[in-house]
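Board notes, transcribed. Complex of a protein with PRP.
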Amino acid sequence: MPIMKGHRIPEVTPELLISELEIRERVEEIATQINLEFEGKAPLVLIGVLKGAFILLADLSRRLTISHSVEFVAISSYGKQDTDAGEIKLRLDLSDDIEGRHVIIVEDILDTGNTLKYLISMLEARNPASLSTCVLVQKQGRAPIDVPVDYLGFEVPDVWLVGYGLDFAEQHRTLPYIGIVRPNAD
Ligand code: PRP
């Protein structure tokens, strides 16, 4: 998440929203579900959206007992504001072909839905065997764009979240829990 004009980086400890244990248990549940649904359906590839998804992807991948590979994409949103992702561009593409493969896009957060919509459209055009989405947190009352979420960690309030991959101006990504920060406008 880029720093927004008029916000300053908070120096306070984020307020706990979802604990490390709750995250671990939910990720295990999702991994179990994926194991069951994709068993015998290889090849499966998890595609993490950098940077925010790197921790979820690492934990999810290590809890899968079925064979799979991992890939990453990176996106740039120019002119991104609170309510608008602006123009989206691909900054880093996959290193491999996904035609005929089962694909799960792994995202940390669904906010407006613009990023996921863009990725679904881009990846569907490459003819995967199937395309699913796994999102750690979805903001309630947001995502005006209708995008399918097949595996959802948690619904969360529309507040600034950090931890477990989520950042505020590149801070707090490595917190083991998900917390709330309350940026103060100058
Ligand atoms: C965040 C997040 C998603 C996107 C979701 O990325 O990781 O990719 O925003 O927002 P949307 O639903 O409104 O499109 P961000 O631009 O903050 O980059 P980062 O992952 O590198 O932190």
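The first strand starts at residue 15 and ends at 18. The chain has a mean pLDDT of 90.
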